[in-house]
Hints:
By secondary structure, the chain is mainly α. It has 20 helices and four strands. The strands form two sheets. A two-stranded antiparallel sheet has the order 1-2. A two-stranded antiparallel ribbon has the order 3-4. A hairpin with a 2-residue loop joins strand 1 and strand 2. Helix 1 packs across helix 5, helix 7 packs parallel to helix 13 and helix 8 runs parallel beside helix 10. The protein is globular and about 85 Å long.
Amino acid sequence: MSSATVIASASATASRTLTGPIVAALRDAAVMTLVTLGLSIPLVAFRTEQIGSELFLQSRWFLALILCLTVFVGRFLFNMSAGWRARTLIVLATITFVPCVVLLGLDLVTGVARSEQMTTLLRSAVFADLFLYALAYLVSGPSHETPLQRRIGEVREKFNPFATPLFLGLAFAFPVIVVLGQGGLSESRYWIDLGILILTYVMLGWGLNIVVGLAGLLDLGYVAFYAVGAYAYALLSTTFGLSFWLCLPLAGLLAAFWGILLGFPVLRLRGDYLAIVTLAFGEIIRLVLLNWQEFSGGSAGISSIPRVTFFGIPFNNGEGGFAQLFGLDFNAMHRVVFLYYLILVLALVTAFVTIRLRRLPIGRAWEALREDEIACQALGINTTNTKLTAFALGAMFAGFAGSFFAVRQGFVSPESFNFMESFIILAIVVLGGMGSQIGVALGAVVIVAAPELLRQVSFVKDMLGGSFDPSEYRLLLFGAGMVAVMIWRPRGLVSSREPTIVFKRKKTISGALVKEGHG
């Protein structure tokens, strides 16, 4: 048999393996949709109303169509998932996702203008349902699987390599999607600002993941390095007139230096004692900034911090500005969009460096230190250098994020760097999954975006005429959600990650069977 025939046969087999379960899931969804259509004709599609002494028959085919689409999408995704947790989330999300998408699409096609509150509610529901779909994908697992579910699981494993490019594509296209959805650049300010806030915490979470997730060192004072980076840029730019691009690496180096200073006193500490010392370090930095008025401005902070430029080109409405240089109409949102892509690049650099370091000897030393420090020492690993590098690199990325925070806000004060910030960043790492890059990013979306989205539905009370205001209970709902995730996924939303070393194949060398791996 020729090699071309073998390749063609393998391609056909792989195609059948991928398309077979999908076709079966679509067939089952189509059958359920036809059943729903048959039931909805007498129950939903028509309605009788009495006007005076006469009865009139009113048709509601649009409502029946939405119901059928909801059943089709929900049943298909139900078949494509595994485990009762994932299927429950699929059902809950689809009930509102399909109607909201249909209504928004109909408004876009027909040009019908709904009230601003109703439009915001529909869009918020769509974003919330997309999050539920992502969560369902993560919690999907074996639970009394049928043969179809097992085949679906095999297909999911084959599509896993496409998850990262998909998330990256959504991250880069997010401003474009928001602008198209909101109908203008100025109208999308809130959502792009929310994206910047989420990416900032994603970067901080990835930095702390080096210390907590990889090295296993509990750090409750991580916000101190965030403050060092912010104040480094604020002082250098206002005192010496240095630009953001020069202050950014300097802020990272200064934060790394303070990370090493923190590392030396805690070399012999573990567990609760390490947490207490790092917590004290974070509070010391905050109190110094609060009381040393000649240096940091005290509680008044530092204001009038220079804004970021497009590599030396200011975002102003005048001669030599960004808009004039590129032939655009001036809009203050140009700077906001640039800040979004700036923090996105900084976050991706953090992720890239972390992933590369994990595959180097220092990354494997971090993981060995996390698993067993005594065994790590017995292997001849210098635990002192291992701990100091973890603290220094984690602090450096926090310094970069702090510098970005200062240039974005234009103002810094000690109140922005309290213990709650450290707690939120640590919760992002633990909730997302310690050691997992994707998990930390998802944890940041959950913890940062969910309370902000609840603010958008504060008008539900007026619309429904009731006394329940979700914005007043957002922290309670947030806490309940965290408890639920800890019950369902005690190791985090993404509890598994790719191993550093993978043994892929076997080969024979001089009669001996040897496993060949790569890191």
